[in-house]
Design a protein that fits this description.
alpha+beta, 8-stranded mixed beta sheet
């Protein structure tokens, strides 16, 4: 896991604060994401050799690190949610029938845990020095969508684990909008929960998972670059995004593609 040492603003408790990818071949992964998304990488982080922070347009976006050879789990993009009490958050995850696969463990100046919710979607929890991109800021990269079996049931789970909704200066609002649950910080969507995921689906893009959306200027061109760099591209599943989401800067399904990188990790490129 790659976690930063500085931030522009403190993240909001219970909101997404970072995304990370653990791979077998970090150099190959860096080459792929540079070719597709134009990222630049910094290896000077606190976790040493094999860990990098990716930036786009000078702004930190994500972390890529080396995966332990003994880890048999599939390669996936993992979103992290901010916690001020990791032990308590982990306890709530377990109490609600979900699985904690890793941690809590010390990571740099903080601690982290990796879990999967009751339908199998993988997510992380971070406590400590804030990650690099602030929650709620305009155009904070990236945005997250949970495609799950039942959006309402998932909203109850994440609401109980991360205290959604919550009023106050660090508040998180939750609203139902056209068959989706939308979590907002300072009026900006930071997570969207959608139904339609199938637990037993042979296609991993359809199984319950947190989809990480990276914004690009030219979606078809990014998809073409992904294929040339050794990845694969598929149409994004699900219905067209609602008007409220489109007004908030989240594009329609017609402007999205699911990309599978050479190690099998899935992410979505969306219209900026």
């Amino acid at each position: 896991m790659t976690m930063p040492t500085t931030t522009q603003a403190p993240p909001v408790r219970g909101a997404p604060c970072w995304v990370n990818l653990l791979v077998r071949d970090p150099l190959a992964a860096r080459a792929f994401y540079t070719a597709v998304l134009g990222w630049e990488f910094d290896d000077s982080g606190p976790l040493g050799e094999g860990f990098s922070v990716a930036s786009a347009d000078g702004r930190p976006v994500a972390g890529i690190g080396a995966r332990s050879p003994s880890l048999a789990a599939p390669t996936v993009w993992t979103p992290y949610f901010c916690s001020t009490d990791l032990d308590g958050t982990v306890a709530r995850i377990r109490e609600r029938g979900a699985t904690v696969a890793v941690g809590p463990i010390a990571v740099g100046d903080g601690r982290a845990a990796i879990a999967s919710d009751r339908d199998g979607a993988v997510f992380g929890v971070w406590e400590g020095t804030a990650p690099l991109w602030p929650t709620g800021a305009a155009a904070a990269p990236p945005w997250l969508e949970l495609r799950t079996r039942d959006a309402f049931e998932a909203a109850l789970f994440y609401g109980e684990v991360f205290s959604w909704p919550r009023p106050g200066p660090d508040g998180i609002d939750v609203a139902y909008e056209e068959e989706r649950i939308v979590a907002r910080v300072a009026g900006r969507p930071v997570a969207v929960l959608s139904g339609g995921g199938v637990e037993s689906a042979p296609d991993p893009a359809v199984r319950p998972r947190w989809a990480v959306h990276f914004a690009v200027d030219d979606v078809p061109r990014a998809a073409e670059k992904a294929v040339r760099a050794g990845g694969a591209v598929f149409p994004a599943p699900g219905p067209v995004s609602s008007a409220p989401l489109a007004e908030a800067g989240i594009g329609t399904r017609a402007a999205e593609y699911v990309v599978r990188d050479p190690e099998g990790a899935l992410f979505t490129v969306s219209s900026r």
